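Dear support,

I submitted the protein below through the web form. The confirmation email said the job was done, but the results page showed an empty box. After a refresh the structure appeared. I'm attaching both so you can tell me whether what I see now is the final result or a partial one.
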Amino acid sequence: MHGCMSGASREQVLSRWDDVRVFLAALRAGSFTAAAKHLGTDQSTVSRRIAALEEALGVALFERSRRKPLPTEGASALREAAERIEAEMVRFTDDAMGIRVQAVAGRVRVAATEEMAVHLLIPRVLPRLRREHPALHIDLVTGYRAADLVGREADIALRFFQTERGDLVGRRVARWPTAVLASRRLAKRAGALELRELDWISVELAGITTPESTWLQAHVERPPVLVCASYQVQLAAIRAGLGVGIGPRFFAELDRDFVALQRVGRDLPVLDVHLVTRRAIRNLPRVVAVMDALSDALGSIGAR
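What the results page shows now:
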C-alpha cells in the first residue's frame, strides 16, 4: 500500500466513513472476533471492511498474526481522529433525534452506582416516571466506572465529580453530608468509643480515591477490620453489626437499621452529586423528564 492519496482516493475514503466505526471497534476490542460480537456481525465482515479502509487510506492499520491482529503505528496515529469522527456522528444523530422526537417517549439509559439505583432510583424515581410517562423506558447501567456518555454507554450519568467537557453538560443537584453509620444494636456502645477504638469497615475501589478513604487515612490510625469492594457490601456489613463506616447521613433516615453516630463529625466529607448528559440531547423531552425527576428526588434528600 502506498502512503499518498490522490483526489479519487480521497473521495473513496470519505465514502467509507462508517468503516471508521469498525476500525475503532477492532482497536478497542483487541481482535476482529470480539469487534464483530460487539457490532453484531461476523469476523469476516470486520476483516473485509478494515481491509477496504486500508486500501482506501493507503495505510496498513493492523498486522495480521496467528493469534490476533496487532495495531500498527498508523492505526495508533489515526485513533484520535477516528474518535473525533465517532463523537461528531453521535452528535449528528442526537441532533436529528431532537428535531424528530418531541414526545416524552422512548428509551433513556441512566448510569449510576448500584447503591444509588437500589436505594434511591428504584424506590423514589422510577415509580413517578412510570406513572407520569408510561411510554418512557429506562435502562439502568450500574457500576463505579464513569460511563462514556459520548460513546453512548448512557444518556444521563449520576456522578460524584464535576464533568468538564465541551460536548457534555452537567449540574450539581445535591450535597449529601456523610456520617459515621452503625447498626442500631451497635450504636450505643460505638457512640462511647474514640475513633481509634472503633471497628471500621471501609471500601476500596480499584483506581478510585474516595472522600471516605481519604478521611479515614487522615483521622483514624487503626486499620479497618473489614475492607469491601462495593458500598452495597459495606452497608450489609454495617447492618450486621460488624463495625462502623462512612456513608451518606440520609441512610439513617431511610433505613431504621442504621444510626448516625452524633459525636463523630469532625471534617466528615460532603458528597456533591452531579447530573450529566450530552449537550446535543439535553433538550429532548424524554431526557428533560428524567433529568427533572432525578434532580427533584436527589435534591430533596440532600436537603434533609
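Response: this is the final, complete result; the empty box was a page-load delay. The CA atoms of residues 259 and 288 lie 36 Å apart.
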